[in-house]
Input
Amino acid sequence: MKHTRTLAVAASVAVAALALSGCSGSDAGGDENTLRLWHYEGADSAMGIAWAEAIEVFEEETGATVEFEEKSFEQIRSTASQVLNSDEAPDLLEYNKGNATAGLLSSEGLLTPLDDVVDEYGWGDQLAPALQTTAKYDENGIMGSGSWYGVPNYGEFVQVYYNKDAFAEAGVEVPTTFAEFEDVLQAFADQGTTPLAESAAEYPLGQLWYQLALGEADRQFVNDYQLYENPIDWSGDEISYATETVKDWVDAGYISTDASGLKAEDAGVSFISGDAPIFYSGSWWYGRFVNEITDFEWGTFLFPEAELSPGSAGNMWVVPERAQNKELAYEFIDITMRPEIQALLGNNGGVPVAAEEADITDEKSQELIANFNALNEMDGISFYPDWPTPTFYDELNAGLQELVNGTKSPSEVQQQLGEQYQSGVDDIVG
Amino acid sequence: MSAIIEELDPERRDVELPTDAAPEPDAERPRRAIRSRRPGGPNKRKPGDWLVLAVAVVLGFFIAVPFLLILVNSFKSPADYNTSGPLTLPTEFYFDGIVAFWERVNFPEKLWNSVFISGLVAVFAVLISMFNAFALGIGRVKGRLWIVVLILLANMLPQEVLLYPLYFMFKEAGLYDSQWAVIIIFTVIQSAFGTYLLASVYSTFPRELLEAASLDGASRWQILWRVVYPISRPTLSVLLIFFFIWTWNEFLIPLTFLVSNATQTVPVAITVLQGDRLMDVTTTSASALLGLIPTLVFFLIFQRTLTRGITAGAVK
Output
């Protein structure tokens, strides 16, 4: 009779569950004095800390309550279009910038255009022009022009992380020119160390490749590449230089051929563990390095001689069209743009978009934010190489893997990438 | 006896009975018994046996590797992970990852949500499967093959295809962001498979028992609960366990329908740890371990039922 018991237990558990839960459906907002807010930053990340403070300031100043839920990036990424089209839509949420995300939702009418509010609060003056690119979308959802649909609160950019102890041991200085940078790489290679932590299976090598192309490029090239203003010449100087330099660096031992199978996490860990003295990657690693690197001193610098570098505004505040308390949402955005909240973000390892450098007291953060501000002053934020088409991220990684492996020559890789890029762009532009 | 059945059953529906169910276990049993009673026992294994054993051990190892990796990395500090990589044993036990995840997502609440949803789905789906299978397998409704195929569509269609229609349906019904949406969807999906499986088990159900019951004056309802249900209970228990574990591990539909944090399940909660570009290997491992333990415990409790096999239930 053992089975009877098993099934009976299961059934009674189910009945108990029914009775206990009663009606567990949540009732969606509707209260006039409640701001329903979603974001996906961890509570101890820079944004998490700054925005928690913003919530307190907001509640104090407006008397409204904030109903905050920490969402997962994955959930917002894959379900936003459904949630925002329902009564469950929050009043304000952090959402991903880009044509496929914020652009798509804006073209479907799910996001509130913010032009009047941006003028009223003056957010447009606080944000550098390149940072505004990802906040504006035209009627087809393509970024760069049209109405404001979001307000970025933090930025990100790609720079060089270096191991100070390893530099001292090898007797090299922080390079200020591209030639010096190659000398540093050569010095490490001569000692039998692979200097660059790289990964071709994920974004790091693609971003290095793009940085090398940007070294030969001007702002118009970025506009052509990212905003489709003119066709890109895939056998032109910029791209050829980038592809051939990556190839040369692999041949010279600056980049390990193993990189073709490594992920970004592997590259980051090889820098943290001290195996590789140089890591060219984004500011999103910064907080983790502060917490996890204990064995050596490290620092950062912008890619030598670069006037353009990969980077962009971070993910941004958007107000759903179906939000019920839009005015409260605008007030909250304005609080997060205040210097003191921005400074808090900066002092905790984030990259604020509108901070006074003088307000940043943390020494390490000063270096990071000075780099970002220097890049912005040159109008150097150039977005990421995989942005132009939805499939280009995988195509670029695959091409660079073949380049690192030596299965394809630089010119073959360029030709292949050029065709893939063009067919993707043709689909978008029509 | 077959003569009697023939008399009662002019359509000769018993034909499947001897070929399908009865002989096979009987044929298997003596063979196995002889082998294990062979003199000398394990010492006299042939090379072939050793080969099979070796292959089984290697396979078992490969199946266990992901779990072992999770176990090893759950108790590692990030610093330990950074210096020694994912493959070494932790230098000391580090519980912060588990504690951090537990507190960040309010794990007991998620655990309860998962138990609530999976438990209800398992019970409802087994009940519905049994009713359907009773009609299709024993009642022999006309066109039952096509009915089964139609029901199976729910199982065969990729969930991505079902997502939007379901989303609009449940939004209209006012059940979006409610656990009941998930319970209803999975009850249907799981019972589709259950119906298919049980219907074929029931189609081999010994007719003589059914006939005897109806001769004794049992109604259909009584036949179901007094004859069919007790005999197929092992199969039903196995289905219950599978439905529970399958529903527990579901991700896409709960992710879509459970908007509020308070309604979410364990697998959905685990995604909180995946950032835009960064991952936290040790905490993610810890969360995977926490998500895995309940199903493991559930499995261990009920594994005796499982070993009885899914097609058990034929008359002994």
User: Anything to note?
Assistant: Residues 17-29 of chain A have pLDDT under 50 and may be disordered. Chain A touches chain B through 47 residues (CB under 8 Å). Chain A has two domains: 34-154+314-355, 156-311+382-429. The longest strand of chain A covers residues 155-163.
